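Researcher: Here's the sequence for the chain we discussed earlier.
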Amino acid sequence: MKYLCLIYSDEELLGALPRPEWDALVGEYLDYDEELRRSGHYITAEALQTVQTATVVRVRNGKLATADGPYAETREQLAGFFLIEARDLNEAIQVASRIPSARLGGVEVRPIMELEQLRGPHWSRTITQGD
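Model: Thanks. This is the structure I predict for it:
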């Protein structure tokens, strides 16, 4: 199964890290990226620019509206992601627990819903279960 590991970090905390600590953190990420590639878990990963570069897009009644900045005011912002392959949720959690930002912020692990799943009765059950 595929899982998306959403990495949440406090941008102020990261921005305040002394250069040697920042460089060490980046090194940890690069090392872990390589480890995931070797283990077969890696599909893709990316870091995001700061939340200040975000643009929120909404369409209401056919009209486009945009807003600069983050979608929500929170202490931790979405900073990046890993898309991984894992046998099950337990293995995905173990992989996510080793992402360096799990120590500094949080990592949300969510299973990927393949597009073909949207066509069947599964989609309607997912919506009602979330209500």
